[in-house]
Amino acid sequence: MNPPRQIRQYFQDDDNSRSALSMVRFVTGRILFDREGTVREMKAEARRIRP
């Protein structure tokens, strides 16, 4: 698994290239385990970028 900073960079790169590939995984995916809430935060970020 990539660290959050790398995934956020993917979000930014995709947004800059008008792609939503990495963000779609977070927006449409189901969280199975997220002890610290990091995935939930990233899902919210992805929704803000690509509603």
Overview of this structure, please?
The protein is mainly α and 51 residues long. It has one domain. It has helices at 4-16, 21-28, 38-49. The mean pLDDT is 90.
What is the secondary structure topology, with strand pairs?
Layout lengths: L3 H13 L4 H8 L9 H12 L2
Give the count of helical stretches: 3
Q: List low-pLDDT spans.
A: none
What is the radius of gyration? 10 Å
Fraction of helical residues = 55-70%
Structure classification? mainly alpha
Q: What separation lies between the terminal Cα atoms?
A: 24 Å
Number of domains: 1
Question: What is the number of strand segments?
Answer: 0
- Biggest sheet overview: none
Mass-distribution shape: globular
Mean pLDDT figure: 90
> Hey, roughly how much beta strand do the residues contain?
under 5%
Give the key terms:
about 50 residues
Brief synopsis:
The chain has 51 residues and is an all-alpha fold. Helices cover 65% and strands 0% of the residues.
